[in-house]
Amino acid sequence: MEGMQAYGAGKAGGAFDPVTFFQQPQTILRIVSWLFSIVIFGCIANEGYINRPNEVEEYCIFNRNQNACNYGVFMGSMAFLCCLAFLALDVYFPQISSVKDRKKAVLADVGLSAFWSFMWFVGFCFLANQWQVTKHEDNPLREGGDAARAAITFSFFSIFTWAGQSFLAFQRYKLGADSALFSQEYTDPSQDATGAPYTSFGGDDVESPGGGGGQPNSEGAFDGSSGYQRQDY
Asked: Residue ranges of region Disordered (predicted)?
C-alpha cells in the first residue's frame, strides 16, 4: 500500500522528507532554473546598460535596444518567481488528497514549463541577434561584454531546464493515479441508485433458490399441507 502513488506522490498525510524532496529530478531542475534566472537578471540589470565616452545617458548593451534588456530583466524576474511558486507547490503536492486537484496541478506544470521553455528560446534568439549586430563604436571599451554573453548563455541553458521540467511533469501525468488507493469513481453504497433493491426482512421480494418468483405472504401461503402431509395407514 505504501508504494501506491497518484501523479508521482503517495497518499496524502505523510511526513515531509527534505532529503527525498531535494533528490527528486524536478526539484533539481527547478533550483537550477531558479539560479539561471538570477544570473540572467543580475547580468543585465547590473552591467547591461552602458554609454559612449561622450554621452551621459546609458543604453542597453544589446545594440542599444531597450526592448532587449527589458525582455531579459522581465523574463529573469518572472522566472525567478515562477520557480519559487513551483517549489512551494512541490512541497504541498503530497498533501493534496483530491486526485482531480493533483491532476490539475500536474497539467499546469506541463503547460507552464513548456511555455517558459518557449519564451526562453525566444529570449535567446532575441538577445543573441541583438548582440551580434551590436556596433563596436557603441561600446569601444567592451564594457559588460562578459555579462551580455553570460545572459545569452544561460538563456540557452534555460530552454532545456524548463523543457526538462515539462517532460517530467508529463511523465507524472502519464502515471496517473493508482485505482487501488485513489479511486475517482467511488460511490457511496447508501446513495447508489443503480444497486440492488432493498428487500425487507420478511422476504417479500426474495427469489427462491430454484429461480422462481417470490410467493405472496398471505394466510394461505402456509396451511400445513405443504410442509407436512399426514400418512394414512
From this structure: 188-233
Q: Summarize pLDDT for 203-219 with one digit per residue, the tens.
A: 444 444 444 444 545 44
Is the Cβ–Cβ distance between 62 and 26 less than 8 Å? Answer: no
98: containing domain: 18-184
201 lies in a domain? no
Residue 23 lies in a domain: yes
Q: What is the mean pLDDT of residues 62-78?
A: 94
